[in-house]
Amino acid sequence: MSTSACKWVASFVVCVGVLYLSLAYPLPAIAGQPQKADVIDIASGAVVGTSQLVRSPNGVAMNLRTTGLDPGAAYTVWWVIFNNPEFCEDFCNEPDLFNPDVLATVLGATGHVIGHDGVGNFAAYLAEGDTSDVAPFGLPGDAVGLIDSTQAAIHLVVRTHGPPIPGHVKEQISTFGGGCDVNACEDQQFAAHAP
What we know:
- The chain has two helices and eight strands.
- By secondary structure, the protein is mostly beta strands.
- It folds into two domains: about 1-25; about 30-195, Sandwich (Immunoglobulin-like).
- The radius of gyration is 19 Å and the shape is globular.
- Residues about 1-30 have low confidence and may be disordered.
């Protein structure tokens, strides 16, 4: 086989491999091994799903599949970033959000209305330094977002915004307080990924 033919075959094999991975693996194509974590129901402590986080030098991608959500309700998922987890009291929890040494921030990941089976499938990517969808808490890390994707502790929080409100669904699936003046919003599930 000629050198040019070998190069063509090698390129074809690589392209087919990339195509296969992009179809078979729902996370964005970025370098790194997926970290897996259980999705936990906050009220009961039960495992209700699974999440994967892939870290790259420039950001993180997540894929979260969960069950037990309110059928037909609007949901969002939030990145909870602890940029300096070494300053957390234990394994980075809510009180650590307000510790300036932890440099924590909360950013919107994704959202949609859930089907009648109560199953949620969510996927999102967050680039280092992206602060475009910061939740309105005024946390120490809000101005910087995700600093180092390989070193941060990252929690994924699943939040309900209640039944869809005509004319307000986009707000319900894309903002922290969307629909909360009419419906009771609450954080229902989470997954925690250590650095």
